[in-house]
């Protein structure tokens, strides 16, 4: 068959534009042409198609095994006939006999076009997938495009992302052209191209927002140890300082709440409790039930269960609306938490009056010590400011 320079030029253009390996395209065309070639000779032959990489010439070969005695002329050739073609053939070798049909040029051109279009689409899908897979598990900003069966389609540059009902914050409105931040849960490749699934309810969304707003978290000076979230209502986040002299909670809150307020606004007013992480389960559980006050914590390390006693007036606050505060504290700490009022603890003989009084006295002592520490620190800061002014 003659040369096909148009095919080579077209392939070179695709290779240059899309960065596809030319051998992949050639091999795909050759594989497709094998099927076309077998239609001319039947499926009972071994057929091979080869395209010249330089000039585009296409040839179809029937592959036959060299044997002593021929039983199937479609698959075998005698050693005598083989050596008439080339004298060095041995038994067991395969001979390629040119059997290119007369109309094979037209068939080859049609097949090549189909394969090139297919590979072009695959290459585009792969390029998009490779670009967006790097955004998986990250926070991105998108623009609301439309709604489809309660799902929201969000434009992320060249691709659209899917925000399903399950991943939407309850009660949140998504209007056309709204700019919103979403967490990329998954980027997966399909036969129709990449699919990007995003979320507004994922706890990692809150983590990424804190990394953006709090430089100390981004650089590792402050570490987020755990997060528990009920999207649209409340989030609890436990933080730990990895740098001497740096206080984790105030740094995350920001001056006059400047940092945490930005995050709360992004989440449409979702409440955020920032808690100091502590290795001591009692202290951690104590803090996790914020904003309620706690009288005492009794923990069982073996079963990872804790009974928490709170003042009677604090019981509803500790439990939270429909148990939300207690539930989030349990998720945050990894402990099962049972909350009792002081009266209930006394009535069930869980503690005695003397033990309850001792708990309250210890809490007052801790509170006074903390107040004194703060006063001392404020005096030190004031003194330093005076020295600076002098």
Mean of the pLDDT scores? 85
For this structure, the quaternary state is: single chain
Major beta sheet, strand line-up:
5-6-7-9-8
Q: What is the helix content? A: 40-55%
Distance from first to last alpha carbon: 96 Å
Low-confidence stretches: 375-390
Number of strands: 15
Largest sheet: 5 strands, mixed, barrel
In CATH, the topology of the domain at 5-131 is named N Utilization Substance Protein A, Chain:P, domain 4
**What class, by secondary structure content?**
alpha/beta
Compute the number of helices: 13
State the CATH superfamily name of the domain at 5-131: NusA, N-terminal domain
CATH architecture of the domain at 5-131: 2-Layer Sandwich
Short synopsis of the structure:
This protein is α/β, with parallel strands linked by helices. It has helices at residues 5-18, 22-41, 79-85, 104-132, 203-213, 215-218, 248-253, 258-266, 281-288, 315-319, 324-333, 342-347, 353-389; strands at residues 46-51, 58-67, 76-78, 94-98, 139-148, 151-156, 159-163, 179-190, 193-199, 222-230, 234-241, 271-276, 296-300, 305-310, 336-341. The chain starts with a helix and ends with a helix.
Can you put this structure into words, describing what you see?
With 390 residues, this protein is an alpha/beta fold. Among the domains are: 5-131, N Utilization Substance Protein A, Chain:P, domain 4 (2-Layer Sandwich), CATH 3.30.1480; 136-199, Nucleic acid-binding proteins (OB fold (Dihydrolipoamide Acetyltransferase, E2P)), CATH 2.40.50.140. The protein is 43% helix and 27% strand. The chain is built from 13 helices and 15 strands. It has helices at 5-18, 22-41, 79-85, 104-132, 203-213, 215-218, 248-253, 258-266, 281-288, 315-319, 324-333, 342-347, 353-389; strands spanning 46-51, 58-67, 76-78, 94-98, 139-148, 151-156, 159-163, 179-190, 193-199, 222-230, 234-241, 271-276, 296-300, 305-310, 336-341. A five-stranded mixed beta barrel has the order 5-6-7-9-8. Strands 1, 2, 3 and 4 form a four-stranded mixed β-sheet that branches. Strand 13 and strand 14 (305-310) form a beta hairpin. Helix 1 runs parallel beside helix 4, helix 5 runs antiparallel to helix 8 (258-266) and helix 9 (281-288) packs antiparallel against helix 11. The protein is elongated and about 110 Å long.
């Amino acid at each position: 068959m003659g040369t096909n320079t148009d095919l080579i030029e077209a392939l070179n253009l695709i290779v240059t534009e899309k960065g596809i390996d030319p051998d992949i395209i050639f091999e795909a065309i050759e594989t497709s042409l094998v099927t076309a070639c077998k239609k001319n000779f039947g499926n009972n032959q071994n057929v091979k198609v080869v395209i010249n990489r330089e000039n585009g010439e296409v040839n179809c070969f029937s592959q036959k095994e060299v044997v002593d005695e021929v039983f199937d002329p479609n698959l075998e050739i005698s050693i005598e006939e083989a050596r008439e073609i080339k004298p060095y053939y041995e038994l067991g070798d395969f001979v390629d006999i040119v059997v290119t049909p007369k109309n094979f040029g037209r068939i080859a051109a049609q097949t090549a076009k189909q394969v090139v279009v297919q590979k072009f689409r695959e290459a585009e899908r792969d390029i998009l997938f490779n670009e967006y897979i790097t955004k998986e598990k990250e926070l991105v900003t998108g623009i609301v495009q439309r709604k489809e069966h309660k799902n929201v389609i969000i434009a992320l540059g060249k691709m659209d992302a899917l925000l399903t009902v399950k991943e939407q914050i309850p009660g949140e409105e998504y209007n056309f052209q709204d700019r919103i931040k979403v967490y990329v849960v998954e980027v997966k490749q399909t036969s129709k191209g990449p699919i990007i699934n995003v979320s507004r309810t994922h706890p990692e969304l809150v983590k990424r927002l804190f990394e953006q707003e709090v430089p100390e978290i981004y650089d590792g000076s402050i570490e987020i140890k755990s997060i528990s979230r009920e999207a649209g209502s409340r989030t609890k986040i436990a933080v730990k300082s990895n740098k001497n002299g740096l206080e984790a909670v105030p740094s995350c809150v920001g001056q006059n709440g400047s940092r945490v307020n930005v995050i709360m606004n992004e989440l449409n007013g979702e409440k955020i409790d920032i808690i100091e992480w502590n290795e001591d389960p009692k202290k951690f559980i104590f803090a996790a039930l914020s904003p309620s006050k706690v009288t005492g914590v009794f923990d069982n390390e073996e079963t990872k269960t804790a009974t928490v006693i709170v003042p009677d007036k604090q019981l509803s606050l500790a439990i939270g609306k429909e148990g939300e505060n207690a539930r989030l504290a349990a998720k945050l700490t990894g402990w099962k938490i049972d909350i009792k009022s002081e009266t209930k603890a006394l009535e069930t003989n869980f503690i005695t009056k003397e033990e309850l009084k001792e708990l309250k006295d210890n809490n007052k002592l801790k509170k006074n010590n903390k107040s004194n520490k703060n006063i001392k620190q404020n005096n030190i800061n004031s003194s330093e400011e005076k020295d600076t002014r002098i």
